[in-house]
Design goal:
This protein has 177 residues and is mostly helical. The chain has one domain: TIM Barrel, CATH 3.20.20. It is built from seven helices and five strands. Strands 1-2-5 form a three-stranded parallel beta sheet, with no helix packed on it. It has a two-stranded parallel ribbon with strand order 3-4. Helix 5 crosses helix 6. The radius of gyration is 18 Å and the shape is flat. The two termini are 25 Å apart.
Length: 177
């Protein structure tokens, strides 16, 4: 499982790299499960409120991991990307917000279905975990969003085929196939 926090191209490259490693060990390609932030609204204008909550969540993570009372990530193996983010001139929330608008299922039911379809086609998603309550969102807004999602989006997503798509195959698998 991974958190869909990068651009679509970057996430596709990560899945492709994972499947290349699997192929090198004689394993078949795998399909990821991804965590995304979801906010479902009747109109695009109303969905903008979901983007405000999402941005609030990004800012909270930025403060938690990179700014407040953090001794730093220098010298800690595996945290090199965190160190880059901690010392960057642009905050994490601002740097990735635009790219995430293309991947997070925040919008109207139709917009959300389009984004989930795009994610499945690029990443070969098999399962999706939706985070529905974040960024200071009031409980009643989260419930309203989840109910609309369950009514209009979930039946379509549950019926959606989830094939392994060529974009996410590992290099060795593409050569063999």
């Amino acid at each position: 499982m991974f958190v869909a926090g990068e651009s679509l191209d970057a996430m596709t490259a990560q899945v492709r790299e994972f499947n290349t490693i699997r192929a090198a060990h004689g394993l078949p390609p795998d399909q990821p499960t991804s965590l995304v932030w979801m906010y479902c609204a009747e109109t695009s204008a109303a969905a903008e409120e979901g983007w405000e909550y999402f941005y609030n969540q990004l800012k909270a993570a930025q403060h938690h991991y990179f700014e407040w009372n953090n001794p730093g990530f220098a010298g800690i193996p595996g945290y090199e990307d965190y160190l880059k983010r901690q010392t960057a001139d642009v905050g994490v929330a601002d740097a990735g917000f635009a790219a995430r608008r293309a991947t997070q299922p925040i919008g109207t039911p139709d917009e959300i279905m389009d984004k989930i379809t795009t994610l499945q086609q690029a990443l070969s998603l098999e399962m999706l975990v939706v985070h529905v309550f974040y960024g200071g969102m009031p409980r009643h807004k989260a419930e309203q969003s989840l109910r609309l999602f369950a009514e209009k989006v979930l039946p379509v997503v549950q019926a959606m085929p989830t094939p392994i798509n060529p974009a996410s195959l590992g290099a060795l698998e593409r050569c063999a196939g």
